[in-house]
Amino acid sequence: MRITTPQNDISEVLLSEEQIKQRVKELAKTITEDYKDKMPIVVCVLKGSSFFFVDLCKDIECHINLDFMAVSSYGSSSISSGEIKIKKDLEQDIKGRDVLIVEDIIDSGHTLKKLIALLDERKPKSIKTICLLDKVARRVVDQYADYVGFEIPDEFVVGYGLDFAEYYRNLPYIGILKPEVYE
Ligand code: IMP
Ligand code: MG
C-alpha cells in the first residue's frame, strides 16, 4: 500500500500559515473598529470557514456572539447551482441584530448570494460578509464580500478548512491541489 500524506498532494503553497495569520489580524482589527458598539452575531458557515472563523474571532476585541450554520448546494458537486439547503440552522434569532457571515471562499458567488437572501428574510438589522478567499475570475453572479482576505487565481485550493472530498481541511496553510488528484 502506498502511504500518502495530504502534503504530498499539494503542488504549491499559495498562502503560508504566517501570511494567513497576518491577514487575519488585519481583518480582525477592521471588524473590531466597524463593530465596536454593535455586538454582532458572527456566523460560521461550516465546515470550510471553521479555521478562519476561530482565528478571526480570537483576534476580534469587541463583544460578539458566535453561531454556526451548515448549508449544501443542490446539483452537481463542482458547479454550484444556485439553490441551497440548510443542513444545520443558527441557534440564535437574528431579528434586529447585526450579522456578519464568515465564508471560506467565493467562487461563482451563488452560495453567498443565496445565503444572504435566506438570512435577510429573518429581518436582521444588517448583514455583512467576510470571506477569506475570493476567486474573482470565476464570478457568475454579482456578489462580493464586504471584507476579503485574499484575491486568488482560478486554481483549486485546499487547507485551512477548505476540502476536496472532505480531505485536506487539516493542512495549516492554503495550497494548490495537484490536478491529478481530482482529474
Ligand atoms: P460558489 O457558490 O460557487 O461561490 O461556491 C462556493 C463554495 O464552493 C465554497 O464555499 C467552497 O465550498 C466551494 N469551493 C469553491 N472553490 C473552491 C476551492 O478552490 N477549494 C475548495 N472549495 C471550493
Ligand atoms: Mg464550502
Task: Write up this protein.
By secondary structure, the protein is an alpha/beta fold. 23% of the residues lie in helices and 30% in strands. A six-stranded mixed β-sheet has the order 4-3-2-5-6-7. Strands 1-9-8 form a three-stranded antiparallel β-sheet. Strand 2, helix 2 and strand 3 (65-73) form a beta-alpha-beta unit. Helix 1 crosses helix 2. The radius of gyration is 16 Å and the shape is globular. The two termini are 21 Å apart. The mean pLDDT is 94. The structure holds inosinic acid and magnesium ion. Inosinic acid binds next to strand 5, helix 3 and strand 8.
Provide a quick synopsis of the model.
The protein contains four helices and nine strands. The chain is of the alpha/beta class and 183 residues long. Helices cover 23% and strands 30% of the residues.
